[in-house]
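Cross-posted from the bioinformatics board.
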Amino acid sequence: MTRRAVAALGVVVSLVVATSAAVPVKAQQEGLLPPPPVTWLDLGDSYASGEGTTAAVGTCQRSDRAYGPVAAAILRAQRSWTVAEHRWVACTGDLFVDVLSSRDAQRAAGADAAVRGPGADIADGQSQIDAAIAQGLAADGRVDVITISAGGNDTSFSDVVIGCLALDPGAGEPWPDVIGGGCDVEEEVLERRIDAVFDGGSAPPVPPGSPTTLTELYRRLVDERLTPDGVLVVVGYPRLLTPSRTWGRWRGATCNSIAADDADMLGRLAERLDLRMREAVAEADGGSGRIVYVSRLTLFDASPAHSLCGVASEWINSIGAWLRDGSGRYQRAFHPNDLGHQATAERVAAEVEAHLGVEPPPSATSTTARPSTTTTAAPRTTTTAERVVRGGASFDPGDDFSARCTVAWPTAPMRSTSSVTIRTTCAGVPSQFQFVDITYPDPDLPVTPARPTVQVEGEVVDVSRSEFGFTVLVVVADDIEVL
Amino acid sequence: MRWAPTGRAPRRHGWWLVLEVGLDLVLVVLLAVMLGVPERLWPGPYDRPEDVALPEVSGDPVAVREYLAGPGQPVVAVVELTADLLAEGTPDDERCRAVAEVELPAVGLPAQVMGAAAGIPDPTTSEMALGQIDALVDLLDSCLAGDADTERVRFSTTIIERRLEELGA
């Protein structure tokens, strides 16, 4: 391949990547300097802990691919921030009351709270805040950043979705037992459950002094756990399946074992939940600007939509994910995957940077060294159109590239008549490049979920940048060996 | 030379013209219905599966073919079993019971067959396979309840048969 052809291909690839990775613009934060070292706390349920990502483990199904840790990693690696303390206590299955109240206290108040069991990541006698204290947070400690996704389990959303499946993946033998039968709950009932999370009266009795609504929980977290300049980032829930009118005809009237009418009903409920969360954040914030909302519904809906059954790469696990990954946890289905958390993390990182990033002094240039308060990190990012230097590593278009890479499934390879493009993570590539997009001039490259690892030799042609300035390395390969 | 009218045509009433146009329209609509035009323009979800555009195979076709000949073999078995069932017409309760209790278990346990479908190294083919299992189970459900509905499973069977043929599997 000629260098001109490589360059042209690189431009096309970077356009494709920029389009697919782009997120709605709030602000370009490139000019902000890192703040003094920050403290960080991630709270919430499975949509925060990382259930559904490739590295989720333990009873809480926590993963370092979840949006909280990834957002912190982005700010460390790409903005030279120092996250001095990171407490991470989100837990799959938790209700919003679990953030501040232990299961013991809930049962004492009359709630029918499930027992966490021996060896659980959070002990029965601990709330999520207690667990953070056990990790080293001072008893009355405050942090600069709190992220949270909570409230979904209070609507029994997981049970609702499983109940909507025509084919119950969790059922055992014999065959007739796998017949699910479709949604078995009325939309009005689910609307009331959602409203109860915000208006009070959601199912379990709560211990005295516990928040009874999400709005109250947000206020309590700000009042009791956030530093004066800190920010609480509330992250919402996505639409699981694209509207049925957009489905390919080949699907008939069912997708991921959910009938079209049921999928559309779940979509309307997701919109209601998103709207109520947005309103709750605005109410709790009261114009202070200390609580911000990241709508995963808006993020995942952005054209092309990344929910299930659309035409773009899916940011949510399909019904078969748990069978494919061998985890045996059918709960992994219908949760955001690595890509979904990565996209969310970019938004979260941008919101955090917008609140805590430091305006450079008027005399400073864009290549100013980092402030003396952060003495352990690498020099502040310097970028030009031709060169990228971040965190001590540098990449120039034209540099040779050689690395062992793994395809970031479920991003399917994009095959044209003359080439294939795969999104990967690569050993030896600094973490600020969360993904490396590789184009190879052989559309028949036999890379599959079963054989996802490749040895790549090629050339860096570009560094794609999302709207927030986060980066993806773009490589055109001369040789790929599927390992 | 100019032509001159030799006589005066009888004047038609407006209502007669309207009636004539209306009758023509009715005839056109009837003809369109007979030719199946509405189905082509506004197909139902399970209409004409043989004409539905299939999504492209994004996995490696050779790998998919090899998979279906090996670990994915239960998927092919379910497709063949379903095609045989439908070839006999609308199945009765006894036939469906035999499929649910004997023939499907002979292919594998639900988790094994669904796992085989989920593991197909092409996302859309995998979805088609899971949809096929879903549709077959749906048929068995309705059939065992005494009201066999084959519309959906006929659609999904045609779709996945076309895909398997495309793959050469």
